[in-house]
Amino acid sequence: QVQLVESGGGLVQPGGSLRLSCAASGRIGSMYTMRWYRQAPGKQRGLVAAIANDGNTNYADSVKGRFTISRENAKNTVFLQMNSLKPEDTAVYYCNAVVRVAGTLRYDDYWGQGTQVTVSS
What is the mean pLDDT of residues 62-88? Predict the structure, then answer.
């Protein structure tokens, strides 16, 4: 009913930048909190950043001051600007959103398929 599609991952050198995007489509009634998670090999998936529909944000301590989450509500899109990237930022990054399905009072949690970010020289 709702699909999330990430883009913008890739290979970057330490100290470089990447911008991830996640676009939601389908039967969207309302978008609520949108989040970015990441999962490195052998580790659990963890929250990177979140943004509420009023614009309030929160970040994992490991990315504060380097990453910025933003959203464009008219396009149901969330972004993650990643600066000063480190090798330990290497992971698959997943977009997550809480969505009210159009025509219902039902709220569901949706995930994207993930995009690989590799930070290496």
Answer: 97
